[in-house]
Design a protein that fits this description.
Strand content: 5-15%
Radius of gyration: 19 Å
Structural class: mainly alpha
Largest sheet: 2 strands, antiparallel
GO molecular function: triacylglycerol lipase activity
Number of strands: 6
Helix content: 40-55%
Enzyme class: hydrolase
Keywords: Hydrolase, Lipid degradation, Lipid metabolism, Secreted, Signal
Order of helices and strands: HHHHEHEEEEHEH
Strand order of the largest sheet: 1-6
Family: Belongs to the 'GDSL' lipolytic enzyme family.
GO cellular component, one term: extracellular region
């Protein structure tokens, strides 16, 4: 067996789909790049302006994520049953991130001072009106105090918490086993 094939057969793969993936690939129809960018900016503007509670995330986007995640959670046991020799796990990053926000916002724990605004921002209430880029983006002084790096992605500090929960978490975070159990089962 070729070394590359042997390595791939023992590798751990992660497939992650986030909010910008939904917007760019599932919500926006196949359109020209300029029109796609315009639609994305209008969508971002809509979400920035139409949030009922300025301290919370968009309800519509959360409903989309929860619907998708519910179906994915059901799919994982089916994949494990139908694809022998492969172990799939479902990681509920959306709920973990919501839990981090809730823990920080209501209990003041975890060290985040900013759960809504992005560390790297251009415009908008939370920095989500225009995606972060080289210019004219502004970057926060202390990234460890921000939950989000940009409008779509958790900061390194958030990702550390997320990774810890995926490594050692219980079935509400990752199922049917956490990453440490998955590695031990291999």
């Amino acid at each position: 067996m070729e070394p590359a094939i042997k390595l791939l057969r023992s590798a751990l793969f992660s497939v992650t789909i986030g909010s910008n993936d939904f917007i760019n690939n599932y919500l926006a129809p196949v359109i020209s790049e300029a029109e796609r960018k315009l639609r994305l900016q209008i969508t971002d503007l809509f979400w920035e302006v139409n949030q009922a509670d300025p301290e919370s995330c968009s309800e519509f986007s959360n409903q989309l994520a929860q619907s998708f995640n519910g179906k994915l959670r059901i799919l994982v046991p089916e994949l494990n049953k139908n694809l022998p020799g492969v172990n799939f796990v479902y990681a509920d990053i959306h709920s973990i991130v919501e839990d981090i926000i809730e823990t920080t916002y209501h209990m003041g724990r975890l060290g985040f001072e900013n759960t809504n605004p992005a560390c790297c921002r251009v415009a908008g209430r939370y920095g989500g009106l225009i995606p972060c880029g080289p210019q004219p983006s502004k970057v926060c002084v202390d990234r460890s105090k921000y939950m989000f790096w940009d409008p779509y992605h958790p900061s390194d500090a958030s990702n550390t918490i997320i990774a810890r929960r995926l490594l050692y978490g219980n079935s509400s975070d990752i199922s049917p086993m956490n990453v440490l159990q998955l590695l031990q089962a291999s």
